[in-house]
Amino acid sequence: ELALRRLAEAWAAEVKASALSPLEAGEVAPKAGWFLPCVAGEPVARLPWSAATAGGVLGAIRTGGVLPTARARNAAVLLLCLSTERIFVVAEELQRAWKTKPAILAAHGGGRKKDQVARQAKALAEGAALAVGTPGRVLRLLSEGHMEVEGLQVVAVDLAVDRKQRNVLTLPETRRDFFALLRQHLVRGLGSAKG
Question: In Å, how far are 27, 46, 130, 138 from 182, measured between CA atoms?
Fold first, then answer.
């Protein structure tokens, strides 16, 4: 319920900041079925997975099994973080806990942004069981056709705060990118979620 409230508050702030029309404001109506409860620091195996999420990648994570192969140009599990700095912290934790190296979808690695996007598109070409990225980079990869949402089983949002007490939903730039990603690419899949 806290996640639902946080998302609704962030959406209201984005509607105001972007001066969206009432019709546009109605495009995102968060539902309880979009969220799984998660307690910070709780081991993955103890999270309350529902029967609906017991298969696929989440089932493999829960049971410590082998992660299934993701579809081409897809990530089965996508974790959105505030910054590249946070992504590398999270990626290291996930690699240790889940024994798989996540695809990193963020501005990093040097070179022009176009070259970075091309490298990340190549990493996604065969599919990735797990990807960690910033909302802006994931939005760009989807918009340019390097990534698809059809194979996504889970989209998680890391709400850890940075040194200035900001998270994905409170920093205006990432909030804008997150809701653009949600409105343009993810809401269709979430629309079928119960709740």
Answer: 10, 28, 19, 11
